[in-house]
TrEMBL record, chain A:
Superkingdom, natural source: Bacteria
Protein's name in the database: Betaine reductase
InterPro entries registered for this protein in UniProt: Gly/sarc/bet_Rdtase_B_asu/bsu, Gly_reductase_pB_sua/b
Organism name: Alkaliphilus pronyensis
Record keywords: Oxidoreductase
GO molecular function: oxidoreductase activity, acting on X-H and Y-H to form an X-Y bond, with a disulfide as acceptor
Keyword hit for Oxidoreductase: yes
Pfam family, one: Gly_reductase
Oxidoreductase is among the record's keywords: yes
Length: 441, 351
């Protein structure tokens, strides 16, 4: 399978008469773009805003991030989700780099939503402060979940994906400025040099904790809660086979943008043929019942072993209950003789003294840790808020609260905030960007 | 000008050696022994105003009295930070430094700093509550150890950013927090580095160290016949004590255990027994402590002849926040008593 990602490096993003890309400038026709958003009648209010690094802007509740792209030869960017099923990861896809489509609730947030500061002290907590962002701020008539802590955010998330397809289409006829090529021969058809290197798989554990459909990550449109681990080509992940869900506390979440750009997968490609033989992706999940966890770990270990993996990386999208899957999977792999490195974040509590993962095992002796979901963060007021600041306190965001006996509400009268890292939008960057680690004090 | 106070034992307080280890606590204005070096290292902005001296044996055998006396000394003093030691490898001194630091921190909410050698048992007992710097084995390291304590004390007083324990030089307090790597290194590079080292059998360091499980195999099962002839003892980490908590077992991070005579009892009744455990809702256990120490059920078994009897004491401590090291020490002490008494079967209840 061979994927060519043709890149256009967006240096600036503006509104204008025609949606077009020229010399690094991405111009958006706002009305036309909003018409794409409004194709879904559930959307009751919608606006578009452009925010850039350094802007004195706070975004909350942020629900999703997507990289604008275009699939050459037609077909949906997200097969099985925004259109019919087709094979992802083989062919050419064009991507607008350095920018994203962000989806922000005009009023209502939930457990899974997060916050982004585009400048100041808060900017370092999230990857998305470094990007030029086309922000969809919208509300819907999904009243059944308006006051629910858990929201599917379906209309808004799908609007974001349509918008990313619409924006991406403007480069359809253009020659990319740079092309990244991702190609792996079939597992049994590798070169002699490749075969001499340690064989490595990456095991991804996307979020799938909700029994009810509509909240979990999707694999080609299929709810990850309803699958057993399966072998995938890494190109499929990089090319829209996976979309983010709407469940996990936000700093632990992997956005759709994160899946499209999965840094750990790209890094394994870089090492492929040099230090390792990259076999591919075992796509697992994070279901809640013990038997499901055991079943998933068993499938993963068997698959790794049958593929001849010498080593594995296991990455989890979540913390708490999913830690049991994470550790069980590492233990199963180690027991099968596969040397494994874990990639995760931790929850050590506001005082930092809690056990970092819900379960531990001595066999998990190699872990890269990307942050603490419960670190407390205080940030000053921001000039402009896009969305609704009160959502952080009012709507049960995983890192916000409406009142705390000691700390008071998350949102203060002057617009300053106190929150847990939990609510930083995809903040722990377990997909691989994180330059954070955990240290003992 | 900020103010500091230093705690020393009788030896470093220049009272005398082991023969004077019963020396009762005293406080002196100004600098005694290592206080001079500490004062010098703290520089112009911080002054050591008083030195407290207490014999190691006095603190060991009359801990509560010693602590209360010292807290009394401090009540009318103004101070911003409290130091104790360095205690090097001296076990009783280390334990005394830890005890007094913890008490001062709890009472006056000021930073407390000590220094001990890694073999000093005081480290394991108090590292969670006190900044204990990694000190030398003997007084030869005095200047270096005092310097480390002073430098960190200054950082705390100035409100400077604190580095992780390893970099500052104190024993980690079990507090894990996120930090940005400087220079930045992506998680992807860290994973690859660790993976290649692990695959090639080279040493690597996990970013999430997992404490070694120190498991003791459970003893082989007894037959019903054996059981009908022996006494069964009860040991609990559920904090059941006679009302009033006569041994003053801590409600969390316990370092003490107690044993209570139940030879004349058939039931732990409300108002006479309770739990002092701070890690769960105590309502049920306070209403009927048998839910944690099942004396009533064991008496019934005794009458039925299923067990030979109930050992005359039950043993109790608190399991919440208690370090593994402390729990193991207490477990060994209790086990030694039970073995000495010839007890062959123990029911261990937790909460």
């Amino acid at each position: 399978m061979k994927l060519e990602l043709g890149n256009f490096h967006v240096k600036d993003m503006i509104f204008g008469d025609k949606t077009a890309y020229c010399n690094g400038i991405l111009t958006i026709n706002k009305e036309e773009a909003l018409a794409v958003v409004r194709e879904d009648e559930s959307i009751t209010e919608a606006d578009l805003v452009i925010v850039k690094p350094g802007d004195k802007v706070r975004l909350v509740p942020v629900k999703e991030a997507i990289e604008p792209r275009h699939r050459i030869g037609g077909g949906p960017l997200f097969p099985g989700v925004t259109g019919d099923l087709q094979q992802a990861g083989n062919g050419k896809t064009l991507a607008l780099k350095g920018c994203s489509v962000l989806v922000v609730g005009k009023h209502w947030g939930g457990f899974q939503d997060g916050l982004i500061d585009m400048s100041g002290e808060g900017a370092k907590y999230t990857y998305y402060s470094q990007l030029k962002n086309l922000v969809l701020v919208a509300d819907t008539d999904e009243d059944f979940e308006k006051n629910e802590q858990q929201k599917k955010n379906r209309a808004l998330r799908w609007a974001g994906m349509r918008l990313a397809e619409y924006v991406g289409a403007c480069v359809a006829e253009l020659q990319p400025e740079e092309t990244e090529t991702y190609e792996l021969a079939a597992v049994t058809k590798r070169t002699e040099e490749e075969n001499k290197l340690p064989n490595v798989v990456i095991v991804l554990q996307p979020q799938s904790q909700m029994e009810e459909l509509g909240y979990n990550d999707l694999c080609y449109g299929w709810d990850c809660n309803r699958m057993v681990p399966t072998f995938m080509h890494p190109n499929e992940v990089l090319d829209g086979a996976m979309i983010s869900g709407s469940f996990m506390p936000c700093s632990s979440k992997w956005s759709t943008y994160d899946f499209q750009n999965f840094p750990m997968i790209k890094r394994l490609y870089q090492e492929h043929g040099k230090t390792i033989n990259f076999l591919g992706v075992i796509m697992s999940n994070l279901n809640v019942a013990l038997e499901q966890k055991q079943r998933a770990a068993q499938f993963v270990a068997q698959m790794a072993k049958s593929l001849g993996a010498d080593a594995a990386i296991v990455a989890e999208e979540g913390y708490g209950n999913p830690d049991a899957d994470f550790i069980a999977c590492i233990v199963a792999l180690e027991d099968a003789g596969v040397k494994t490195v874990g990639l995760t974040n931790e929850c050590t509590g506001r005082d930092g003294a809690s056990q970092p993962l819900v379960t531990l095992d001595e066999k998990a002796d190699a872990i890269v840790s990307c942050g603490n979901v419960s670190d407390l963060i205080k940030l000053p007021p921001m000039e402009t808020v896009i969305g609704e600041l009160q959502a952080l306190a009012r709507d049960g965001l995983s890192g916000g609260w409406d009142n705390d006996a000691v700390l008071g509400p998350s949102v203060k009268e002057d617009g300053s905030i106190i929150m847990e890292n939990n609510a930083m939008f995809c903040g722990d960057q377990v997909v691989g960007w994180s330059t954070k680690t955990m240290k003992e004090f | 000008m900020k103010k500091a106070i230093l705690y020393l034992n009788q030896f470093f307080g220049q009272i005398g050696g082991e023969e004077l280890a019963d020396h009762a606590p005293e406080i002196r204005e100004g600098l005694v022994g290592p206080a001079m070096e500490l004062d010098k290292q703290l520089g112009e902005d911080v002054k050591v105003t008083h030195t407290i001296i207490c014999g190691d044996n006095f603190m060991g055998s009359n801990q509560e009295e010693a602590i209360n006396t010292i807290i009394g000394f401090l009540e009318d003093k103004e101070f911003d930070i409290f130091f104790a030691g360095p205690a090097f490898r001296a076990g009783r001194y280390g334990s005394a430094c830890g005890n007094i630091c913890k008490a001062v921190k709890d009472k006056f909410k000021v930073p407390v700093i000590s220094s001990m050698n890694d073999e000093n048992p005081g480290v394991e007992m108090f590292k969670k509550e006190v900044y204990i710097f990694k000190g030398g084995a003997s007084a030869a390291a005095m200047r270096k150890d005092v310097k480390a304590m002073a430098a960190f004390g200054l950082k705390l007083l100035k409100g400077e950013d604190l580095l992780p324990a390893e970099e500052e030089g104190y024993f980690g307090r079990g507090v894990r927090s996120q930090v940005w790597l400087n220079p930045p290194v992506n998680a992807t590079d860290r994973v690859i580095d660790m993976l290649l080292k692990k695959v090639h059998g080279k040493p690597f360091v996990s970013e999430l160290p997992i404490p070694k499980a120190d498991l003791v195999p459970i003893a082989p099962a007894l037959t019903a016949e054996e059981l009908s002839n022996i006494e069964v003892a009860i040991v609990t980490s559920g904090g059941i004590v006679p009302v009033g908590n006569p041994d003053r077992i801590q409600s969390a991070s316990a370092t003490k255990w107690g044993k209570y005579d139940i030879s004349q009892l058939d039931d732990l009744v409300k108002g006479e027994y309770m739990t002092i455990h701070a890690g769960f809702d105590p309502a049920a256990a306070n209403n009927d402590s048998d839910v944690i120490v099942p004396l009533d059920a064991l008496r019934a078994y005794e009458k039925e002849g299923k067990i030979g009897g109930v050992y005359k004491y039950f043993y109790s401590t608190v399991g919440t926040g208690t370090t593994q090291a402390e729990a193991a020490r207490m477990g060994k002490e209790i086990a030694a008593e039970l073995v000495e008494a010839g007890v062959k079967a123990v029911i261990l209840t937790s909460t």
